[in-house]
Write a structure and sequence with these properties.
The chain has 388 residues and is α+β, with helices and mostly antiparallel strands. It contains 10 helices and 22 strands. 26% of the residues lie in helices and 28% in strands. This is gamma-butyrobetaine dioxygenase.
Length: 388
């Protein structure tokens, strides 16, 4: 990418600056955006990388009074009030408003690529110790987690506390009503269906929360001899299948607000109520988050009576796709394994196992928010690839 400027023009009637680059391409920068993003110390606090310019000081109809070019590497603009702004060519090039440049910036900031999978998943595996102490391995782990939605870490100690270390590696864990970490095992008077020996159907965790946890960690400390196999399914892949197969069902699940409830006592007492669409979509209508937990779906359904049966039919079709043999992947955790997965995308479940007088199966769980994980991913990329 050539960041040398060949020529600049500032046609007042268009309220923008035209930049012709040495590679032959051209970029258009609206004057209001350039003034808003002045990088001088008066307008921008570089130590915090934050704008100081007050929005009320901004004139949306501003035009440049004078534009000069220095060494083809720096653009200088004098505004009508005699304030001067300077912009490095490389900085401008990255922020070009063309679709190609904006797509490249989205990729650079948000890692939006998805690799969809079904029963043919080749479960990505990495040694726990490597990602804990080697930045390149940690970068690969988080890149794969973002792209595929699941990574199995192997070789952790079969004791509680390993997830706290993992939380420190990325930044910090998400505290919920079940504590900073929580123990998945058969318990008397269980306050969650996960704390039983029964089968768990495919679900995402905590759709009752306004902002469900983005990433989940499950660390196997003890595993039962028979039963207890884990199952996962790519919810985005299945949602895409549903959209192709039955657009009306997809529309119902992506528009109907479903009530969820979670009431009990754990880290503290709680009475949580929430509404979520089973399939949250982005501005393109593509699945951006799955919110489905049949166990905590409330008896309340806040829709007109005539919409109830179509909703159930749509959810039944989605659930059937989740459980089809071509979509689900089954595996069994061993002591020391930590499965890390995207709780907004990957639905997980469990086969039943035999309960006993002693604990036969024990997983420790924890959550992290995607904001924390993505922050660490960007920092690791900068460190590993020496990128700004």
């Amino acid at each position: 990418m050539s960041a040398a400027i060949q020529k600049v023009e500032a046609p007042d009637a268009e309220h923008l600056i035209r930049v012709q680059w040495e590679d032959g391409s051209e970029s258009h920068y609206p004057c209001v955006w350039l003034r808003d993003n002045c990088q001088c110390p008066h307008c921008f606090l570089h130590s915090a990388k934050a704008r100081k310019l007050q929005f009320e000081e901004l004139d949306v109809d501003i035009v440049a009074k004078e534009v000069t070019l220095s060494d083809r590497k720096k653009l200088s603009i004098t505004w009508p009030d005699e304030h001067t702004s300077e912009y490095e060519a490389e900085w401008l090039k990255k922020r070009c408003f063309s679709e190609a440049a904006r797509a490249e910036m989205r990729q650079d900031l948000f890692f939006p690529e998805h690799q969809y999978w079904g029963s043919d998943l080749q479960l990505p595996k990495m040694p726990f110790e490597e990602i804990m102490y080697d930045d390149e391995s940690a970068y690969k782990w988080l890149c794969t987690l973002k792209k595929t939605g699941v990574v199995l870490l192997t070789g952790a100690a079969a004791r509680q506390g390993e997830l706290v270390k993992l939380g420190h590696r990325i930044g910090f864990l998400r505290l919920t009503f079940y504590g900073p970490t929580w123990q998945v095992q058969d318990k008397a008077d269980a306050n969650n269906v996960a704390y039983t020996a029964g089968k768990l159907c495919f679900h995402t965790d905590y759709p009752v929360l306004q902002h469900p946890p983005g990433v989940q960690f499950l660390h196997c400390i003890k595993q039962t001899a028979t039963g207890g196999e884990s199952e996962i399914v790519d919810g985005f892949h299945v949602a895409n299948k549903l959209k192709q197969q039955n657009p009306q069902a997809y529309q119902i699940l992506s528009s109907t607000a479903v009530d969820y409830t979670d009431i009990g006592v754990d880290y503290c007492d709680f009475a949580v109520q929430g509404k979520q669409r089973i399939i949250d979509v982005d501005y393109r209508g593509q699945a951006a988050r799955i919110n489905f937990n049949n166990a905590t779906r409330d008896t309340v359904l806040d829709v007109p009576a005539e919409e109830v049966r179509p909703f159930y039919a749509a959810l039944k079709e989605f659930n059937d796709l989740l459980n089809s043999t071509e979509h689900k992947f089954t595996y069994k955790l061993k002591p020391g394994d930590i499965v890390t997965f995207d709780n907004w995308r990957v639905l997980h479940g469990r086969h039943s196992f035999q309960a006993g007088s002693q604990v036969t199966r024990h997983l420790e769980g924890a959550y992290a928010d995607w904001d924390v994980v993505m922050s660490r991913l960007r920092l690791l990329r900068k460190r590993v690839l020496n990128r700004d």
